[in-house]
Amino acid sequence: MATPMYSNEAKIRQAIVMLMRIVNDTAVPRNIRRAATEAIKQLRDESLSPGVRAANAVSILDEISQDPNMPVYARTLIWNIISLLETVRD
Asked: What 3-state DSSP class applies to 49?
């Protein structure tokens, strides 16, 4: 099934919504919620281009996706967010 093309800003907004689920989930360890918050901050930085914002967030998320304390569903969500953000191009 082909995915419809979304604008970079729409993808970034969707990623922020998905990250907020992790930030607001108390079952997720604090360090992972903190990293998700930092990724959101990067995505909202209007002084950077969408591609740079997405790359910065992917870098943060990629690092924490290896955390052995992360619940499986949160890891899957982070992988989905990374996949989404990797499609953001300038």
From this structure: coil
For residue 67, tell me if it sits in a domain. Answer: yes
CATH of the domain at 72: 1.20.1440.50
Count CB-CB contacts under 10 A for residue 90.
11
Q: Considering only CA atoms, which of 74, 90, 64, 88 is closest in space to residue 13?
A: 88
In angstroms, the Cα distances linking 54 to 17, 25, 79, 85 are 14, 22, 14, 5
Name the pTM for this structure. Answer: 0.89
Number of domains in the chain: 1
What's the pLDDT tens digit per position in 29-40?
999 999 999 999
